[in-house]
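Re-run with default settings, no changes from the original entry. Doing this only to confirm the output is reproducible before filing.
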Amino acid sequence: MRPRGRPKKYRIVRRDPRISQFSPRGKPGRPEEVNLKMEEFEAIRLMDFEAKSQKEAAKSMHISQQTVSRILKRARRTIADAIVRGKIIKIQGGAYVITSHNPK
């Protein structure tokens, strides 16, 4: 059976994260894990770390501003869940392509 709906557009990611996993310290046993997709990582990097506007981030990732907003909201929720509940954050997966080409 074919997937329904519109095919997902690949998001442009400029670089791989240097670290692909963050673990809480001081929690006994094996903590639960959450996945932060590569496009969520890229949205956080562009908007929160590099302080770019939503429009600039959208242009860099080759997607709409609304899509950047949804991705960022999901990323922040995932990170907050991991911090509050002491979960491991793994950065992996998603619909993305890594490129170093800068948009004009």
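The chain has one domain: 11-20+32-98. The chain has a mean pLDDT of 86.
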